[in-house]
TrEMBL record:
WD-type repeats, residues: 1-24, 113-156, 158-193
Gene3D superfamilies attached to this UniProt entry: YVTN repeat-like/Quinoprotein amine dehydrogenase
Pfam families the UniProt entry points to: WD40
Protein name: WD40 repeat domain-containing protein
Coiled coil: none
InterPro entries, per the entry: WD40/YVTN_repeat-like_dom_sf, WD40_PAC1, WD40_repeat_CS, WD40_repeat_dom_sf, WD40_rpt
Length: 279
């Protein structure tokens, strides 16, 4: 499934196998979206510009629990994970904290995670040594890793960017979890999360405020990153910075990218949603 939010005030769920809508649209303005599957049930999280969090069953629209205030100011990004069988929502706050909440109850799992010294602008989750972790990026130019079982940081901050971090994403490469981050310094950096070290770098030409990359999988054993650049999507090998495929040019500016199963890439441009299939 793919979930999208638009300026028409709706949130829609799409079946990636058929391209059709999988459920009736939900009437809600959402600044941030996240979804998780737990115990065979899909939960959809919608976060409004004022920081209000709502969790619902996307098929029925039924609310799972009462809406609550994130207490983080504006939420700038969100991701989900299931540490030790417990579905959680991880939120990146304008108050410089990382929130972790139980998606079943809506209650905080930990006190807000602190360490970033600027707004937390991006978050992704993955498994590291069999444990669920969150990877976050911030205005403070760093990337941090957090253990979602203990709420503690994993190692120190990853440094190298010279301007605000604008996106993070994760993928498993040869059995090792890696993260990619973009920043307003015009670079995409690849991090080995097991060794907590930078292992690749690529120059990107997107407008600084729009720099976004998504790791969409591997090709020939090497990672592939999709980079949003105005009316095009560019594919790079973040280990070397070289092209990893032909650019995809679109008729309108690309607004969002998301990795989908089997190396596919979901993207939104104008009022359209499309899925690219690797070949």
């Amino acid at each position: 499934m793919a979930v999208t939010a638009a300026a028409d005030g709706t949130v829609r769920t799409w079946d990636l196998a058929t391209g059709r809508q999988a459920a009736a649209p939900l009437p809600a303005a959402a600044a941030v979206l996240a979804a998780v599957v737990t115990a065979g049930r899909t939960l959809l999280v919608r976060i409004a510009p004022d920081g209000t969090v709502r969790t619902a069953d996307p098929a029925t629209g039924e609310e799972v629990h009462r809406p609550y205030d994130s207490a983080q100011g504006r939420v700038l990004a969100a991701a989900t994970a299931v540490p030790d069988g417990r579905p959680v929502l991880v939120t990146a706050g304008s108050d410089r904290t990382v929130g972790v909440r139980d998606l079943t109850t809506g209650e905080p799992v930990f006190e807000p995670l602190t360490g970033h010294t600027g707004r937390v602008t991006a978050v992704a989750t993955t498994l590291l040594g069999g444990r669920a972790v969150a990877v976050t990026g911030s205005w403070d130019r760093t990337v941090r890793v957090w253990d979602l079982t203990t709420g503690r940081p994993v190692g120190g901050p990853l440094t190298g960017h010279t301007d605000w971090v604008t996106s993070v994403s994760t993928v498993v490469l040869d059995g090792t979890p890696v993260a990619a981050s973009t920043a307003r310094d015009g670079t995409l950096r690849l991090w080995d999360l097991a060794g907590m070290a930078e292992i690749g770098r690529a120059e990107i030409s997107a407008a600084p405020s729009a720099a976004t990359a998504v790791l969409v999988g591997t090709a020939g054993g090497r990672p592939v990153a999709a980079v949003r650049e105005e009316c095009a999507v560019r594919f790079l090998d973040p280990l070397t910075g070289r092209r990893a495929g032909a650019d995809r040019v679109l008729p309108e500016p690309v607004q969002a990218l998301a990795a989908a199963p089997d190396g596919r890439l979901a993207m939104a441009f104008g009022s359209h949603v499309a899925v690219l299939v690797p070949r």
